[in-house]
Amino acid sequence: MGLFGFIIGVAPALAPTVGGYIIDTMGWRIIFLIFAVATLILMAAAFFLVKLEFETGDYPLDVLSLILSVVACVGLLFGLTNFADYGAHLTNTITPIVIGIIALLIFVYRQFHIESPLLDLRILIHKYYFFGTLFSSILYFTMCGLYVLMPLFVQGVCNQTATTSGIVLLPATLVMIVFNFVGPVLAQKFGVQKVLIVSCIFSIVGYYIMSTYTASTPLEYMIATQIIRAIGAGLGLMPAVTWTLTVAKGNIEDATAINNTVRQIIGASGSAVAATLLTVFTGGYVAHDKITVSAFSQTSLFMAALCVISLVIVILFIKDGVQDGETEGVQVEESV
Q1: H or E segment and range at residue 277
Q2: Residue 142, pLDDT score
Q3: pLDDT digits 0-9 by tens, 59-72
Q4: Given Cys at both, which of 17, 234, 287, 320 links 191, Cβ 3.0 to 4.6 Å?
Q5: CB contact set of 312 (below 8 Å; sequence gap of 6+)
Q6: Residue 95 pLDDT
Q7: What is the mean pLDDT of the chain?
Q8: How many CA atoms lie within 13 A of 167 on its CB side?
Protein backbone atom coordinates (compact mmCIF):
# COMPACT_ATOMS: atom_id res chain seq x y z
CA MET A 1 0.00 0.00 0.00
CA GLY A 2 2.95 2.31 0.57
CA LEU A 3 4.07 1.67 -3.01
CA PHE A 4 0.51 2.34 -4.19
CA GLY A 5 0.56 5.61 -2.25
CA PHE A 6 3.87 6.53 -3.88
CA ILE A 7 2.45 5.95 -7.36
CA ILE A 8 -0.68 8.05 -6.81
CA GLY A 9 1.42 10.71 -5.07
CA VAL A 10 3.85 11.30 -7.94
CA ALA A 11 1.26 13.10 -10.07
CA PRO A 12 0.22 15.62 -7.37
CA ALA A 13 3.89 16.21 -6.61
CA LEU A 14 4.89 17.06 -10.16
CA ALA A 15 1.65 18.31 -11.73
CA PRO A 16 1.42 21.77 -10.08
CA THR A 17 5.03 22.61 -10.91
CA VAL A 18 5.13 21.12 -14.41
CA GLY A 19 1.63 22.39 -15.19
CA GLY A 20 2.51 25.84 -13.93
CA TYR A 21 5.60 25.96 -16.13
CA ILE A 22 3.58 24.85 -19.18
CA ILE A 23 0.93 27.51 -18.51
CA ASP A 24 3.55 30.24 -18.10
CA THR A 25 5.46 29.28 -21.25
CA MET A 26 2.95 27.75 -23.68
CA GLY A 27 -0.53 28.54 -22.37
CA TRP A 28 -3.15 26.41 -20.64
CA ARG A 29 -4.65 24.87 -23.81
CA ILE A 30 -1.55 22.78 -24.50
CA ILE A 31 -2.13 20.86 -21.25
CA PHE A 32 -5.23 19.19 -22.68
CA LEU A 33 -3.33 18.21 -25.81
CA ILE A 34 -0.70 16.58 -23.59
CA PHE A 35 -3.45 14.71 -21.71
CA ALA A 36 -4.94 13.44 -24.98
CA VAL A 37 -1.58 12.18 -26.28
CA ALA A 38 -0.68 10.60 -22.93
CA THR A 39 -4.04 8.83 -22.79
CA LEU A 40 -3.55 7.35 -26.25
CA ILE A 41 -0.07 6.14 -25.29
CA LEU A 42 -1.38 4.56 -22.07
CA MET A 43 -4.22 2.83 -23.93
CA ALA A 44 -1.76 1.36 -26.42
CA ALA A 45 0.62 0.29 -23.66
CA ALA A 46 -2.21 -1.32 -21.69
CA PHE A 47 -3.35 -3.27 -24.74
CA PHE A 48 0.07 -4.83 -25.24
CA LEU A 49 1.50 -4.98 -21.71
CA VAL A 50 -1.33 -5.52 -19.22
CA LYS A 51 -2.07 -9.21 -18.81
CA LEU A 52 -5.01 -10.85 -17.08
CA GLU A 53 -3.41 -13.06 -14.44
CA PHE A 54 -6.43 -13.93 -12.30
CA GLU A 55 -9.60 -15.92 -12.76
CA THR A 56 -12.73 -14.19 -14.00
CA GLY A 57 -16.38 -15.14 -13.88
CA ASP A 58 -19.35 -14.78 -16.17
CA TYR A 59 -20.80 -11.71 -14.46
CA PRO A 60 -23.29 -9.65 -16.50
CA LEU A 61 -22.77 -5.91 -16.93
CA ASP A 62 -25.80 -3.89 -15.91
CA VAL A 63 -25.74 -1.22 -18.60
CA LEU A 64 -28.49 0.89 -17.02
CA SER A 65 -26.54 1.09 -13.75
CA LEU A 66 -23.45 2.12 -15.70
CA ILE A 67 -25.37 4.89 -17.46
CA LEU A 68 -26.93 6.08 -14.19
CA SER A 69 -23.54 6.23 -12.50
CA VAL A 70 -22.07 8.30 -15.34
CA VAL A 71 -25.04 10.71 -15.33
CA ALA A 72 -24.82 11.07 -11.54
CA CYS A 73 -21.09 11.80 -11.52
CA VAL A 74 -21.14 14.17 -14.49
CA GLY A 75 -24.23 16.00 -13.28
CA LEU A 76 -22.98 16.59 -9.75
CA LEU A 77 -19.44 17.57 -10.73
CA PHE A 78 -20.62 19.77 -13.62
CA GLY A 79 -23.10 21.60 -11.41
CA LEU A 80 -20.67 22.08 -8.51
CA THR A 81 -17.96 23.32 -10.84
CA ASN A 82 -20.31 25.80 -12.53
CA PHE A 83 -21.46 27.18 -9.19
CA ALA A 84 -18.20 29.11 -8.88
CA ASP A 85 -18.84 30.89 -12.20
CA TYR A 86 -22.64 31.11 -12.45
CA GLY A 87 -23.90 30.92 -8.86
CA ALA A 88 -27.35 29.40 -8.36
CA HIS A 89 -28.12 29.50 -12.09
CA LEU A 90 -31.05 27.29 -13.07
CA THR A 91 -29.59 25.92 -16.31
CA ASN A 92 -25.88 25.75 -15.60
CA THR A 93 -25.88 24.83 -11.90
CA ILE A 94 -29.15 23.73 -10.31
CA THR A 95 -30.45 21.55 -13.16
CA PRO A 96 -27.31 19.36 -13.54
CA ILE A 97 -27.04 18.96 -9.75
CA VAL A 98 -30.69 17.89 -9.48
CA ILE A 99 -30.29 15.48 -12.42
CA GLY A 100 -27.14 14.08 -10.79
CA ILE A 101 -28.85 13.57 -7.43
CA ILE A 102 -31.87 11.86 -9.02
CA ALA A 103 -29.61 9.58 -11.08
CA LEU A 104 -27.58 8.75 -7.96
CA LEU A 105 -30.68 7.87 -5.94
CA ILE A 106 -32.01 5.64 -8.72
CA PHE A 107 -28.57 4.02 -9.05
CA VAL A 108 -28.40 3.26 -5.32
CA TYR A 109 -31.96 1.89 -5.26
CA ARG A 110 -31.23 -0.29 -8.27
CA GLN A 111 -28.09 -1.80 -6.73
CA PHE A 112 -30.14 -3.08 -3.80
CA HIS A 113 -32.91 -4.56 -5.97
CA ILE A 114 -31.25 -6.39 -8.88
CA GLU A 115 -29.63 -9.80 -8.86
CA SER A 116 -26.28 -8.73 -10.36
CA PRO A 117 -25.54 -5.13 -9.28
CA LEU A 118 -22.78 -3.07 -10.83
CA LEU A 119 -21.55 -2.37 -7.29
CA ASP A 120 -22.72 -4.39 -4.30
CA LEU A 121 -23.54 -1.42 -2.08
CA ARG A 122 -24.79 -3.68 0.69
CA ILE A 123 -21.24 -3.74 2.00
CA LEU A 124 -21.76 -0.12 3.08
CA ILE A 125 -24.09 -1.28 5.88
CA HIS A 126 -20.98 -2.69 7.58
CA LYS A 127 -20.27 -0.03 10.16
CA TYR A 128 -16.49 -0.18 10.18
CA TYR A 129 -16.15 -0.35 6.42
CA PHE A 130 -18.54 2.60 6.02
CA PHE A 131 -16.65 4.87 8.40
CA GLY A 132 -13.25 3.78 7.07
CA THR A 133 -14.36 4.71 3.56
CA LEU A 134 -15.82 7.98 4.85
CA PHE A 135 -12.54 8.87 6.58
CA SER A 136 -10.37 8.23 3.51
CA SER A 137 -12.88 10.10 1.33
CA ILE A 138 -12.80 13.20 3.55
CA LEU A 139 -9.00 13.08 3.56
CA TYR A 140 -8.95 12.86 -0.24
CA PHE A 141 -11.55 15.66 -0.46
CA THR A 142 -9.34 18.05 1.52
CA MET A 143 -6.23 17.03 -0.44
CA CYS A 144 -7.85 17.73 -3.81
CA GLY A 145 -9.36 20.95 -2.51
CA LEU A 146 -5.94 22.08 -1.33
CA TYR A 147 -4.46 21.67 -4.81
CA VAL A 148 -7.01 24.22 -6.04
CA LEU A 149 -6.87 26.61 -3.10
CA MET A 150 -3.13 27.15 -2.88
CA PRO A 151 -2.50 27.97 -6.57
CA LEU A 152 -5.45 30.38 -6.52
CA PHE A 153 -4.06 32.10 -3.43
CA VAL A 154 -0.43 32.24 -4.57
CA GLN A 155 -1.36 33.52 -8.04
CA GLY A 156 -4.43 35.63 -7.28
CA VAL A 157 -3.49 37.15 -3.92
CA CYS A 158 0.31 37.02 -3.88
CA ASN A 159 0.63 37.90 -7.59
CA GLN A 160 3.03 35.04 -8.29
CA THR A 161 3.32 32.94 -11.44
CA ALA A 162 1.74 29.54 -11.99
CA THR A 163 5.21 27.97 -11.82
CA THR A 164 5.82 29.54 -8.42
CA SER A 165 2.51 28.23 -7.08
CA GLY A 166 3.59 24.74 -8.10
CA ILE A 167 6.98 25.16 -6.42
CA VAL A 168 5.24 26.17 -3.18
CA LEU A 169 3.45 22.81 -3.14
CA LEU A 170 6.28 20.62 -4.43
CA PRO A 171 8.27 20.07 -1.18
CA ALA A 172 5.12 19.29 0.79
CA THR A 173 3.91 16.76 -1.74
CA LEU A 174 7.30 15.06 -1.82
CA VAL A 175 7.09 14.79 1.97
CA MET A 176 3.59 13.32 1.60
CA ILE A 177 4.97 10.64 -0.73
CA VAL A 178 7.59 9.67 1.86
CA PHE A 179 4.96 9.43 4.60
CA ASN A 180 2.84 7.21 2.36
CA PHE A 181 5.55 4.64 3.10
CA VAL A 182 6.02 5.66 6.73
CA GLY A 183 2.29 5.58 7.59
CA PRO A 184 1.69 1.84 7.00
CA VAL A 185 4.89 0.95 8.88
CA LEU A 186 3.86 3.03 11.90
CA ALA A 187 0.35 1.58 11.74
CA GLN A 188 1.74 -1.95 11.97
CA LYS A 189 3.92 -1.00 14.91
CA PHE A 190 1.67 1.27 16.96
CA GLY A 191 -1.84 0.57 15.65
CA VAL A 192 -3.86 2.25 12.93
CA GLN A 193 -5.98 4.37 15.29
CA LYS A 194 -2.98 6.12 16.87
CA VAL A 195 -1.47 6.86 13.45
CA LEU A 196 -4.74 8.27 12.11
CA ILE A 197 -5.20 10.44 15.20
CA VAL A 198 -1.75 11.93 14.62
CA SER A 199 -2.62 12.33 10.93
CA CYS A 200 -5.75 14.32 11.80
CA ILE A 201 -3.88 16.54 14.26
CA PHE A 202 -1.23 17.43 11.68
CA SER A 203 -3.95 18.15 9.12
CA ILE A 204 -5.96 20.33 11.50
CA VAL A 205 -2.88 22.34 12.45
CA GLY A 206 -1.83 22.64 8.80
CA TYR A 207 -5.16 23.97 7.59
CA TYR A 208 -5.46 26.30 10.58
CA ILE A 209 -2.05 27.80 9.76
CA MET A 210 -3.24 28.26 6.17
CA SER A 211 -6.11 30.38 7.52
CA THR A 212 -3.52 32.86 8.83
CA TYR A 213 -1.87 33.47 5.43
CA THR A 214 -1.97 37.02 4.11
CA ALA A 215 -0.86 38.70 0.90
CA SER A 216 2.49 39.48 2.53
CA THR A 217 3.18 35.99 3.89
CA PRO A 218 6.64 34.87 2.68
CA LEU A 219 6.64 32.00 0.21
CA GLU A 220 9.24 30.23 2.35
CA TYR A 221 6.80 30.23 5.27
CA MET A 222 4.07 28.79 3.06
CA ILE A 223 6.38 26.03 1.88
CA ALA A 224 7.38 25.14 5.46
CA THR A 225 3.84 25.13 6.83
CA GLN A 226 2.47 23.16 3.90
CA ILE A 227 4.79 20.35 4.97
CA ILE A 228 2.85 20.08 8.25
CA ARG A 229 -0.38 19.47 6.37
CA ALA A 230 1.35 17.06 3.99
CA ILE A 231 2.61 14.91 6.89
CA GLY A 232 -0.99 14.51 8.02
CA ALA A 233 -2.18 13.51 4.57
CA GLY A 234 0.70 11.10 4.02
CA LEU A 235 0.29 9.42 7.39
CA GLY A 236 -3.44 8.89 7.00
CA LEU A 237 -4.36 7.81 3.51
CA MET A 238 -2.76 4.39 3.06
CA PRO A 239 -3.34 3.08 6.63
CA ALA A 240 -6.99 4.11 6.37
CA VAL A 241 -7.48 2.40 3.00
CA THR A 242 -5.67 -0.75 4.16
CA TRP A 243 -7.69 -0.95 7.39
CA THR A 244 -10.97 -0.37 5.53
CA LEU A 245 -10.32 -3.18 3.06
CA THR A 246 -9.20 -5.48 5.89
CA VAL A 247 -12.50 -5.25 7.75
CA ALA A 248 -14.33 -6.19 4.54
CA LYS A 249 -12.03 -9.06 3.65
CA GLY A 250 -14.92 -11.40 2.84
CA ASN A 251 -15.94 -9.23 -0.11
CA ILE A 252 -12.67 -7.64 -1.17
CA GLU A 253 -13.62 -7.07 -4.83
CA ASP A 254 -16.66 -4.91 -4.14
CA ALA A 255 -14.97 -3.33 -1.13
CA THR A 256 -12.01 -2.20 -3.24
CA ALA A 257 -14.20 -0.98 -6.10
CA ILE A 258 -16.53 1.02 -3.85
CA ASN A 259 -13.71 2.48 -1.76
CA ASN A 260 -11.79 3.63 -4.84
CA THR A 261 -14.89 4.94 -6.62
CA VAL A 262 -16.25 6.90 -3.67
CA ARG A 263 -12.82 8.31 -2.85
CA GLN A 264 -12.20 9.48 -6.42
CA ILE A 265 -15.65 11.04 -6.81
CA ILE A 266 -15.50 12.86 -3.48
CA GLY A 267 -11.93 13.92 -4.22
CA ALA A 268 -13.00 15.40 -7.55
CA SER A 269 -15.87 17.20 -5.85
CA GLY A 270 -13.36 18.56 -3.32
CA SER A 271 -11.69 20.59 -6.05
CA ALA A 272 -15.04 21.96 -7.22
CA VAL A 273 -16.31 22.71 -3.71
CA ALA A 274 -13.07 24.45 -2.67
CA ALA A 275 -13.16 26.72 -5.72
CA THR A 276 -16.86 27.37 -5.19
CA LEU A 277 -16.46 28.28 -1.52
CA LEU A 278 -13.60 30.64 -2.30
CA THR A 279 -15.62 32.32 -5.04
CA VAL A 280 -18.72 32.62 -2.86
CA PHE A 281 -16.79 34.08 0.07
CA THR A 282 -15.10 36.63 -2.21
CA GLY A 283 -18.36 37.64 -3.84
CA GLY A 284 -17.32 36.20 -7.21
CA TYR A 285 -13.79 37.44 -7.90
CA VAL A 286 -10.38 36.34 -6.60
CA ALA A 287 -8.07 39.36 -6.40
CA HIS A 288 -5.16 40.89 -4.54
CA ASP A 289 -7.28 42.29 -1.70
CA LYS A 290 -8.37 41.72 1.90
CA ILE A 291 -11.68 40.17 0.85
CA THR A 292 -9.94 37.33 -0.95
CA VAL A 293 -7.54 36.83 1.96
CA SER A 294 -10.54 36.54 4.30
CA ALA A 295 -12.27 34.15 1.89
CA PHE A 296 -9.16 31.96 1.72
CA SER A 297 -9.04 31.93 5.52
CA GLN A 298 -12.68 30.86 5.78
CA THR A 299 -12.22 28.11 3.20
CA SER A 300 -9.12 26.85 5.02
CA LEU A 301 -11.06 26.74 8.28
CA PHE A 302 -13.75 24.73 6.49
CA MET A 303 -11.07 22.20 5.54
CA ALA A 304 -9.83 22.17 9.13
CA ALA A 305 -13.38 21.50 10.34
CA LEU A 306 -13.60 18.49 8.02
CA CYS A 307 -10.37 17.19 9.57
CA VAL A 308 -11.94 17.60 13.03
CA ILE A 309 -14.85 15.44 11.82
CA SER A 310 -12.30 12.90 10.60
CA LEU A 311 -10.69 12.89 14.05
CA VAL A 312 -14.05 12.14 15.66
CA ILE A 313 -14.59 9.28 13.20
CA VAL A 314 -11.19 7.80 14.07
CA ILE A 315 -11.78 8.00 17.82
CA LEU A 316 -15.27 6.50 17.69
CA PHE A 317 -15.19 3.99 14.85
CA ILE A 318 -11.68 3.02 13.71
CA LYS A 319 -10.51 0.31 16.08
CA ASP A 320 -7.24 -1.58 16.11
CA GLY A 321 -9.05 -4.75 17.20
CA VAL A 322 -11.09 -5.02 14.00
CA GLN A 323 -9.64 -7.83 11.90
CA ASP A 324 -11.28 -9.91 9.18
CA GLY A 325 -14.76 -8.76 10.12
CA GLU A 326 -14.60 -9.06 13.91
CA THR A 327 -13.66 -6.96 16.90
CA GLU A 328 -13.88 -8.32 20.41
CA GLY A 329 -16.80 -10.49 19.45
CA VAL A 330 -18.69 -7.79 17.55
CA GLN A 331 -19.45 -8.76 13.93
CA VAL A 332 -18.78 -6.32 11.15
CA GLU A 333 -22.25 -7.13 9.85
CA GLU A 334 -23.45 -4.60 12.44
CA SER A 335 -25.11 -1.86 10.42
CA VAL A 336 -24.65 1.85 10.65
Answers
A1: helix 252-282
A2: 93
A3: 788 899 999 999 99
A4: 320
A5: none
A6: 94
A7: 86
A8: 10
